Target: MFS transporter
Amino acid sequence: MNARAATLVLIALGAFVTTLDNTIVAAGAPSIARDLGLDLGALQWVALGYMLPFAGLLPAAGTLIDRWGRRPALAAALLLFGFGAAAGGLAGSVWLLVAARVLQGVAAAFLVPGLLSLLRTNLDARGRTLGAAVWTACLAAALALGPALGGVLSEYLGWAWIFFVNLPFVAAMLALLPGAASPGRTGGTRAPPVTAMILVTASLVLLTTALAEPRFALPLLAAAAVPGVAFLVREQRARERLVPAALTGNRVFTGSLVLQLLWGLGISGVFFFTPLLHQEFLGLGPFRAGLPLALVAVAVVAATPFVPAAVARFGPHRTVAAGLAVVGTGLLALAAVNHVPALLPRVPGMVLIGAGSAFTVPMTSHALDVVAEHHSGTASGLLTASRELSSALGVAAIGAVLTAVRGVRLDAGAPPRAALAAGYTAGLLTAAGLTLAGALLAVRVLRHRETSSPHDKRAVP
Model:
């Protein structure tokens, strides 16, 4: 297998397993709770143990990858991820299980930006578009298949296999790594800005915890603001910055971060509450309630081969704008039929959401095109952090809209099922508005006269 093929396969496996590890655990949560005797408060830390270090360490991890080199950083992350998966499957108490999840979250924080940086270092502009499309398709597949796979493994093999299933992916990725990642460093030999890393990590961990723990949201947000402001002040004054000025001053890159945030705000919240609606409003069981989301993944995969040609013909800014517009249209289509207690009318909207999402991949690939190769790890970490933050914010924002509208309808005497459907419709409309705003913004912020950085290299054969 040549380096280009190894890179694409490695990226595909990494995208799938790091996303699967989150969604598959959610499906096995009831079995874990029964076996370990956990209440809901303790159970949520099985998810938070993965999410908090993953989201919080991403900016620092991207910078360290640039300094240490991609191959050693990725090899260490894969070994740690595999060790955490094995420990999670063997855990006999909640705290051992949470500790194992923390190890996996730390590993994922290095694994994801390290893999994304290979788009910049190993592939040309067209190859980066294909690689980003493969990444997005695998993310969608993991999101759709995770709950179903977790349910099957928990029911027939036991919840430990939710963690053990990661190990074959880790072994395959370690085998592919030497052919896809160079061992050398790209970010210089100066010491990393440790103070900045501590400040931004503390701020992001506290912010993510605030989103996950609404009961303590205000004090946690206040606590997150202190290191956050200190980080911004330090970055303005420091000679050695965590986020280079070449990135913050790049309109295309910063615009891509904003677009990633808008897209995630809309999609993540809607997807989180869709299985709930399917169970409570349509009367489907847990397995069947999550299964329709596979339509979104199928649509992403089916549309992915057309993305490079669209970028070449229309440019990344028009391609992303059109993709976001199609996603917004799909959300509006779902809202238009949400009052109908049947699944079939929802299919066109789900297909549009998936197909449109495939054409948003230049948000990542084009953003990496316009940064220097020695900043690719930092850039990948920031792009991933934006996506992870948007996921948490999306669940919180759409959830707040859904809850508020549902409460108003219940107070007005509406049946619980109808009130939930009304809240979900309001969430869909909110998500559509955010996504369509992103479509308008994409035309401006992603337009760039040169689609490659002056530091760009030829694709690895």
Observations:
- The mean pLDDT is 81.
